[in-house]
Amino acid sequence: MKIEQQGFGLIEVMVSLLILAVAVLGFTAMQGQAIKATDESLERTQSLVMMRNMGEKIRVNPTAIAAYQTAINTPVTSPPSKTCGLNGTIETCNPTELATAEAYFFTQSMGNRGFTVNLQPCPSTGGGVDTNIMYSWCLISAWGDTRPTIGTDTKTKDTKEGESTDGKMDCLTSQSEADSKVTKGGKYHSGATCMFMEIT
After folding, report:
1. How do residues 157-168 score in pLDDT, each as one tens digit?
2. Which residues pair with 147 in a beta bridge?
3. Alpha carbon 154 to chain centroid distance?
4. Assign residue 3 a region: left if phi > 0, alpha if psi is -120 to 50, beta otherwise?
5. Within 13 Å of residue 178, how many CA atoms lie on the same side as its CB?
6. Which of 62, 91, 112, 168 is the most exposed place for a label (fewest CB within 10 A)?
């Protein structure tokens, strides 16, 4: 008597399910990476738009750069005494008052979106000497485990001697003049989640 197999055997079904499970897991991992990349792109775009807007304001009011630096680097929670018409009122302001008001609204807007900001002399253009013809300012925005700062700290996980213990890292490398060799700074640290814009 000839017996012909009908349907699928248990082993065939289990192998098929295993292949399907591997494919689904791979697809899920790919989707997770795509979502992460999309979020990163959105954060960078939001940051860039707001930084570009602030950079233009600084370029229009260059005599108040010290006021911009102070107000951006030490943000306050309450609005300045003069908002210079930025909140819908009509007020006359001098350049310093305008810089303070603009920086306040900028830091509040950035903070509400999860960004921290800083305004520092760019490490690769002028070495912190404002009389240098190449001198410029860096407007830095950071998010996640990155500070909007210039330095050597790439610390993110395990505590080691001489490293920061706050679990955060600097955004950009600093300029070094050790051993009579100038090492240009202004490069992103590997793994930093930040961006900077040069303002001249």
Report:
1. 555 544 555 678
2. 170
3. 15
4. beta
5. 4
6. 112
